[in-house]
Each structure stands twice: as structure tokens, then as C-alpha cells.
Amino acid sequence: MKASAEQIAGKSRRLLPRWASILVSSISLLLVVFLLADARSEIAAQLSRLNIGFLLLGLGLGMTATFVGFLSFAAILVPMLDAPMRVGRLGHLHFTAQLLKHLPGRVFGIAYQIGAGREGSSAAWIAANGLHILLTLYTACLVSACVLLWPSHPVGAAIVLAAGSAAWLLAWRSPLPQRLLRWSEGKHGRVHRLVRSLTTPMSRLGNGDHLRILGWMMVSWAVYLLAWAGYGLAATDLGALEGMLMSARYNLAWLVGYVTLVTPSGIGIREAAFLAMGDGFSASQLAYGALIGRLSLLLIDFMLGLIFLPFHVAPNDDTE
To answer: 53: which residues sit within 8 A by CB, 6+ positions away?
Structure first.
């Protein structure tokens, strides 16, 4: 039976009281403000001298990177669907969920997909999102490590990238879903049923699918780095390389905010982690990076959600 959006959203509310989420976000944001208070005049000067052309270039590249990342998600989900789904409709469901991750939270976005995406089972939506999130987290660490290694050890960075990509493909080339299913057989019945419901749609993915999934994701990261190169060129005291190095630190800070599962879109926690990783950058540069990172992602998700909004109706919907 397909779970309703209300059931999933209700469970998500019980994970953490709303007041606790607000408290953690507020404390984290206050810490960020406190750390940057002495540099407020430098921050204002930094923002007033931005090159709008390079800033818009970065936003355009960032939107392209986000769309290519969506193609990676589509390559995961389409083989799991019970009925065909048009790219436009899938884009609407995906980018609406991306918007909901900012407020009230990612679980609500998946709940929306389950409730509106009748072409796939709830297990397919959860499995596709889970695999896409896992791949995003894995490649964020991989790409960030390579970017940070590149200035001093370019050969080492290339080896890490190749080895990390091969490791992902080899892990999924093995019968991983079947192994997870066998592992769960000796567990509690509820655990086994959950693993079975998630591994069943994953078993539909072949080796070619996994190659396409990883390929789209790595292209997305490459364009994303170019977007941060544009953001670096937009600042008078940064450059393309500094922008990409900053993006690697921001990726890791995003990862910290994501895995804490405390606040929507890691607000406050991500910024605090970014400042803590900011060795080599001034306070005004870090403030710029934190602002551009947060606002660009929000703006890009909003714009792509708006572009795909007209495709929200299912082909067989009576209201179409």
C-alpha cells in the first residue's frame, strides 16, 4: 500500500521537536554573526565591489549543474517506475522536493513525491532518493578531496578521482541489493520488510544504468566547480582557483549540515562549519562564500522549480 504524504510528514515531525530545530539553527547563526562581527565593514566593501557579470555567469553555470544532477536522479528513478513519466513532470516532482528541503525539510519533499508521483511506488521514490543522496554525499567528499589536493598534488588528485569512481561502480556491480536482502533475513521482521521493499526497485538497475548515473553526477560536479570559479572571479580579492577551493570547503560544510539532520537544509550549522574550515581565507571572503553558497542554491532551486511548475499535472489527470 502506498504511504501517504501525511503519514511520512507526521513521522518526520516526531524525529525532532520543532523548537529544538529552531534553537539549534538560532544558536548556529548567532555564532556565525559573532565570528564575523569584527569584519562587517570589510564584508560590506566586498559585496559592494562584486562583478555582476561573473556573478550571473556563476549562477547560470550553477543552474546547469543542478539540472545535470537531476538527470542523474532521473537515471536512477526511471527504471524503477511502474508507468512511464515525462521528463517535465519528473522535473517538477524533483525540483519541488528540492525547494521543500529548504523549508520545512527534505522528508517533506520526498513525501510530496510519493503523494503526487503515482507512476511509482513509495518504495521506488524512497529508494531512488536514498541512492541519489548517497551518491551525492559520496561524490561531494570525493570531488572536494580532489580539489583540495590538486594545487599541490595534481597526480594524486587524479588517482583519487579515478579510484573513487571505480570503487562506486564496483560496489554496485556486485549483487549489493541481494546481499543486503540476505543480511536482513535474520533481523526483525520489520527490518527485513523495509530492506526488501527498498532493494526490489534497486535491483532493476543494471551496470549501464549505474555508469550513466555516476557519469551525470560527475559532469554535474564539474560544472558546479566552474560555477564557483565564476563566483571567485566576481570578487575583487579572489580568483577562479580560489573560488573552486572555497567550493570544496563549502561542499564539506554542506555535508556536515546535511548529516546532522537537525535543521532544514542545515541552516546555521552549514555556515558555522564553513567558517571553521576557512583556513587561508579572510573573514570577508568566508562571509561572501557562505552567502553565495546559501543564496545561490536557494535561488537556483526556486528558478528550476518555477520552470518545471507547468508540468505538475499527470498525463491522465482529469483536471488536465
So the answer is: 234
pTM comes to: 0.79
Q: What is the pLDDT of residues 271-303, one digit of tens each?
A: 788 888 878 888 888 888 888 888 888 889 889
Distance between CA 199 and CA 193 in Å, rounded?
10
**In contact, 21 and 262? CB cutoff 8 Å:** yes
Please identify which residue in the block is written with the cell numbers 562549519.
Answer: 273
Centre a 10 Å sphere on the Cβ of residue 212 and count the other Cβ atoms it contains: 17
Would you tell me how many other CB atoms lie within 10 Å of the CB of residue 205?
21
Distance CA 102, CA 299 (A): 11
Q: What is the dihedral of CA 69, 74, 77, 79, to 10 degrees?
A: -140
**Within a 13 Å sphere around the CA of 280, how many CA atoms are in the beta-carbon half?**
9
- HSE-CB at 112 with a 13 A cutoff on CA atoms is 18
Look at residues 257, 247, 236 and name the one whose alpha carbon lies nearest to residue 106: 257
Whether the Cβ atoms of residue 299 and residue 99 lie closer than 8 Å to each other: no
In this structure, what DSSP letter does residue 186 have? T
Give the single-character DSSP code of 2: P
- Looking at the chain, the whole-number percentage of residues with pLDDT higher than 70 is 72
Contact 54, 230 (CB under 8 A): yes
The single-letter DSSP state of residue 203 is T
In the three-class reduction of DSSP (H, G, I as helix; E, B as strand; rest coil), residue 243 is classed as helix
Name residue 130's amino acid.
G
Please state the domain extents for the chain: 18-311
